[in-house]
């Protein structure tokens, strides 16, 4: 069992004691991604787009892409933004989307509006 830490400068550096992603046994566990620089603007679609781009950069650094994602978790500050988030999120999965849950939470790191984590397999 060989654990590999995945890091790319094309996504935000961790803001705590965690890795952007960990690859082990053909599986990639991507930590929750946020769009810190966009959060204060309140444009949930732009924020979601940036989060998905961050995930894409990490996937690429691990030699994978969106088609390798099998599970995602979406955390939102306001469930009223669900449709807007879903619209952007759906653009990244044109066929066979991954399993997913979406959960409303009271607060997210750096007061962002959406955070998404994924699990991908080779």
Automatic annotation (TrEMBL):
Domain of life: Bacteria
Transmembrane parts of this sequence: none
InterPro entries found in the cross-reference section: RidA, RutC-like_sf, YjgF/YER057c/UK114
GO cellular component, one term: cytosol
One Pfam family of this chain: Ribonuc_L-PSP
One of the record's GO molecular function terms: deaminase activity
Family: Belongs to the RutC family.
Identification of the protein by name: RidA family protein
Gene source species: Spirosoma taeanense
